[in-house]
Amino acid sequence: MGRIPGDRKKKRRPTLGPHKIPSVTVSAVIFDWGGTLTPWHTVDHDALWREVCIPHFPDRADEVTAAIVAAEHAYWELTDTSQSSATLDDVFARAGVAPTEAMLAAYYEAWDPHTITDPEAIPLLRTLRARGIKIGVLSNTFWPRDAHERVFRRDEVLGLIDAAVYSSEIPWAKPHPEAFRAVMRALEVGDPATCVFVGDRPFSDVHGAKRAGMRAVLIPHSEVPPFDEVTPDAVITRLADLPAHLDAWSAPDA
Ligand SMILES: [Mg+2]
């Protein structure tokens, strides 16, 4: 998963110097999911789907795998270009595949090793809660809510999340401002300037959050497309580094 080391000196005091930004009480921290709350894994989607398809389509597993992977790719491209969302049902429909319950269960099980919540997430979320900060999740995903909640429940973080919005449930995906507004509504937070978004994608997460009026923290890794037209308010290489930035942003201007 290869993460890029950040510049610690610059990150520790983000309110100082030419990048100084006004202090404000942080009311909510909203996290991306893949690559953020769960560490980045490079997943071979072709191999994963083939493994899932072989028992269910023994005579044409390669053909079905190719159709599903092509449909996923098409919908991710559509998200990139139009910021519209899609669901796993859309993917199957486009691929011309009618999955059984057993196939779906096998699919989510195949993902299990790649969805382990970062061990630093629970202590971080508890720290935020202790400070009275609401915790949100906003994920670009084909998966339905129950699939995500099963993972969060498994890793004992579901009860620490105040509200989650999955793009599969709304018409839009990040970086569309409506996706960010949706999670603010779910959290019952009115002012985006009091929200901090944490994500691993410069375009979807950082650009999207800042365009919506939030602060944005980037957790960089090497496998997402760059987007140089926006500068995150902070860069962290581990979740545990987030509270220091919240402290700095909440400190009175001196
Ligand atoms: Mg991500």
Entry summary:
This protein is α/β, with parallel strands linked by helices and 254 residues long. Helix content is 41%, strand content 10%. The longest helix is centred in the N-terminal third of the chain and has 22 residues.
Can you characterise this structure?
There is one protein chain. By secondary structure, the protein is an alpha/beta fold. The protein folds into 2 domains: 167 residues, Rossmann fold, CATH 3.40.50.1000; 69 residues. Helix content is 41%, strand content 10%. It contains 10 helices and 6 strands; from the N terminus they run H-E-H-H-H-H-H-E-H-E-H-E-H-E-E-H. A 6-stranded parallel β-sheet has the order 3-2-1-4-5-6. Helix 9 links the parallel strand 4 and strand 5. Helix 2 crosses helix 3 and helix 3 packs across helix 4. The chain is elongated. The termini are far apart. The N terminus is likely disordered. The structure holds magnesium ion. The site of magnesium ion has 7 residues, from loops.
